[in-house]
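Thread: quick sanity check before group meeting

JM: Hey all, I'm pulling together slides for Thursday and realized we never actually wrote out the predicted structure for the chain we discussed last week. Dropping the sequence here so it's in one place. If anyone has concerns about the input, flag it before I start.
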Amino acid sequence: MARYISLIRFTEKGALQMRQSTRRARAFAKAAAKAGVRVESQFWTLGSYDGVLMLSADSEESALRYLAMLSSEGYVRTETMRAFVDDEFDKIAGGR
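JM (edit): ok, ran it. Output follows.
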């Protein structure tokens, strides 16, 4: 399964309704799981970003579909990158 890390920022709407953030996060994880997208972890953070989401999916299309759905609700904006564990990176970098 491919892994992704999304850096999350609240929109103005999301900041105004921050108290419901964990409820929305649980609902997102449940809906995504039905489509084979697994939320591995989610953290609320201080600093430049309001949160970090780690997820995995069988296909890039599935992962991006659910991240687009998350953003389309208007509470957050995401910045997403593909993530690799050491063995995967070794194969990419030619180490193995």
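AS: nice. The chain has one domain: 2-83. The helical segments are 12-16, 21-34, 60-72, 86-93.
JM: adding both to the slides.
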